[in-house]
Amino acid sequence: MPGPGFYWIGEEEKREVLEVIESGHLFRYGSADNPKFLHKTHTFEREFAEYCGVKHALLINSGTSALWISLLAMGLISGDEVIVPAYTFVASYAAIIFAGGVPVLTEIDDSLTIDPEDIERRITPKTRAIMPVHMLGNPCDMDAIMSLARKHELLVLEDACQAAGGSYHGRKLGSIGRAGALSLNVFKTITTGDGGILITGDEDLYERAFALHDQGHAPLRRGMEVGHRTILGMNFRVNELLAAVALAQFRKLDALVATMHAKKRRFKELIADAKGFTFRTLNDPEGECATLCTVIFDDAENAARVSRALNSKTVDQSGWHVYANIEHVNRHLEAIGRPYGKGAYPRSDDLLSRAMTISIGVVDPGLGAGFGVSILSTEEEMRHTAEQFCRACAG
Prior knowledge:
The chain has 395 residues and is α/β, with parallel strands linked by helices. Helices cover 38% and strands 13% of the residues. Helix 7 links the parallel strand 4 and strand 5 (155-159). The two termini are 28 Å apart.
């Protein structure tokens, strides 16, 4: 049940990891004068920042941590409201809550990403930030979101955890707002098993984020830096082994995305004659990751019937990716007097009950993508899968 990067793990990852093991130097820090220190972590951060067109990247232990640390580094304080979609993984909400903020949920539109029109309706004097989530590798409508942010003087933190390698109008996802968070979890575009990346062009935010992730230290410290710590931090560092895998995976990222685009185009051709659904809106068809093919049926009953026939499920049943299914978040929302539970966001409920995701590169029943193909699928396998889908639609 992994993402596409998992399927392409091979000699490159083995070579990078073996170099670190043979060096005997596993810690992320070391002396530039020490030939055994291979600085894989710093190399990844530098290359990934260049790839995204930002000044800084910080390799960290998870996408969740990247979100949380970004919010803290942005200066979020207790009671600040953060606007976030009703369709996202639980980590988006948890990061806001643990940073002391209030998640203000918002409807999605037929891109299955945050609805910019609904964002404006939910802005209050307490609103501090917007967290657009590039769900299922589909870019949000960032032009509209950034326009709203400028108009209301709000911060923007992009949750690009499901969208490494994606872009919006030529800019890499995560690089458009004040900061971006990406995930290297096993279900994501590229993977280190678990891991995350924080990217930003803001020097002060980067320095605060770095300190928060490493006991208050300044970036790329040498030694213990006694007396130079600026803020209290924790330990969310990664080691050189994780960075070694990240480097090998990252260098395959563009090829992975290109392969998924080709397979998705072909799969959509194969199911083009099926009836009863439309494809979800893509805010940038060339920039999406193409990890999944999402269809939206004309009604919920037909969506449920087709998904059952394919041993899959509609998106509203995809666990902790839907606000109504996240029991502990709903308890928190109820306790603070915010709308909660199914029915609180009716447009999102309707869209998700009619939507089904078909795997192209991410094979994850937790996303509702237990049916479909993988990045390794042959033409014959894709034809067979497409025929199954078309038969199910025909009833």
